Amino acid sequence: MRKKLLTGAAVALPAAFLPAAFLTSAPPAAGAAPGSPDLAELVTLKDLEAHLEAFEEIADYNGGHRATGGPGYGVSVKYVVGRLREAGLTTRVQNFSYPYWREKSDPVLARTAPSKKNYRPGKDFATFAYSGSGDVTAPVRAVDVPAKGDGTSGCEKRDFTGFKKGSIALVQRGTCTFQTKAARARAAGASAVVIYNKPGEKGPIDGTVSEPVEIPVVGTTRELGVELVKAAKKGGLKLRVKTAAVHGKRRSSNVIADTKLGREDNVVLLGAHLDSVEDGPGINDNATGAAALLAIAGKINELGREGVRNRVRFAFWGAEEEGLRGSSHYVESLSDEERGSIALNLNFDMLGSRNGTRGVHDGDHSSRSGMRAPAGSGAIEKMFRDYFASRKLATTEAEFNGRSDYGPFIEAGIPAGGMETGADGVKTAAEAKAFGGRAGKVYDPCYHAECDRLKNVHLRFMKTNVDGIAHVTQRLARSTVAVNGGARVRPVRDPSYRPVWRGPYQVR
């Protein structure tokens, strides 16, 4: 996420907080070629730890982080390229540019009439990403706000009929994108836009208008929005809205590596983001995912020609923390033929959360939450679940909520799956019973913080998860029949797909 939610030292948790039953040894690989070694056994904890130590050292010598645009990211790219080439993979660096936006100072939202009151940034309101800069004091006009439900406030041109130019537009979140609401308000002559949360949503909106706009745009809590609507309807309400931001273009890069073995027209693609946030070295988020890919890539050629019948591709995404920029660029850059050659995408983001769960992405949409993944995704989920069940290791549903790099693949109609162990969410009592750890505490106490170092990673827990990743990779490298029939198919983009998140920013 863009906003750092937790800071300070790591919460002290036992080094082995998981019950012994959840750290059992691996069974023989199912679906492997006769006589082929077990990829999960080939990948060792020592391999994983060595990569994590390297990423931490890179951060320590490059400003304390590996964020896109900084020297730590550039050195991380060089490290990954070197290890992949040593492993005998065909490797390339894909450069790209993306929009950049940052606030220069704290925003201001204050009522100036009929009475005065200051509101708190981060608590009552937040600036939208790609908001313009400005210092506006003006009357407020509530725009087609619904009496209940989501409504379509600010979504239609007619909503602004009679809107007085120079006023501040007050609209409710819902139905259309924030970008649409801001564009409609700007076209109607609004000097600023205040978007308040819809019913049932907590906290201020931490959103994006996706593209730079010329006027300030802020999002408030539901409670503050309702208060402002009532005051606006009475008449005489004036607000001061002040924002100061810079925007432009930045450059980053993806690293893409292919096995030399396997069908070029039926690619199993494993992805993990390589960048951290600027607040810390990002070892759990997401050096763990990158280390898993490197460790598997380093041993996959040992499966031989019979074990790697399908091309396996390892992708290390840049600028994920800036809004899934690297994976989005990659998918958008593919030709129809290239897109059709990708059988599936596996995504891994945070694999060693100290108070985590073993979340397998909900490919069959059985939880009825998040987005529905393309056909074939349920088969991927079942492979992970069957493996962990064979080891008597608990799993839980991880919804596809658009917060990681599977999003662009799902949008393009490519089956997806993968794992995560939790970020800033809070562990429930049922999860604590199943996985150990502490109920009522966050999954990763150092999420997006300076303390996200090697000591923040539960290494033995991570190894059990990487075992599952290696196992599923080995099965799919040999056959994708369960996912796509084993034949090249043209993915069908889902026109109803609307990401709830675009990386760290909500879009509607």
Measured distance between first and last alpha carbons? 16 Å
What structural class is derived from the secondary structure elements? alpha/beta
Number of strands: 18
Annotated CATH homologous superfamily of the largest domain: Zn peptidases
Number of domains: 2
Ranges with pLDDT <50 over ≥5 residues? 1-22, 499-507
Number of helices: 14
Pfam families: PA (PF02225), Peptidase_M28 (PF04389)
GO molecular function: metalloexopeptidase activity
Keywords: Signal
GO biological process, one term: proteolysis
What does this structure look like?
Residues 138-227 form the PA domain. It comes from Actinomadura hallensis. One of its GO terms (molecular function) is metalloexopeptidase activity. This is PA domain-containing protein. One of its GO terms (biological process) is proteolysis. The longest helix is centred in the C-terminal third of the chain and has 20 residues, at 459-478. Residues 1-22 and 499-507 have low confidence and may be disordered. An eight-stranded mixed β-sheet has the order 1-10-12-11-13-16-14-15, sandwiched between helices. The protein has an eight-stranded mixed β-sheet with strand order 3-2-9-5-6-7-8-4, with helices on both faces. The protein folds into two domains: 32-101 and 249-506, Zn peptidases (Aminopeptidase); 105-243, 3-Layer(bba) Sandwich (Glucose Oxidase, domain 1). α2 (45-60) packs antiparallel against α3, α2 (45-60) crosses α6 and α10 packs across α13. The protein starts with 38 loop residues before the first helix and ends with a strand. β17 (501-502) and β18 (505-506) form a beta hairpin. The chain has 508 residues and is α/β, with parallel strands linked by helices. The chain is 28% helix and 22% strand. The protein has 14 helices and 18 strands. The protein has helices at 39-42, 45-60, 71-86, 178-187, 222-234, 283-299, 304-307, 325-333, 336-340, 377-390, 407-411, 429-435, 459-478, 481-484; strands spanning 90-103, 108-113, 117-119, 125-127, 134-142, 168-172, 192-196, 217-220, 238-243, 245-258, 263-273, 310-317, 342-348, 359-361, 396-398, 416-420, 501-502, 505-506.
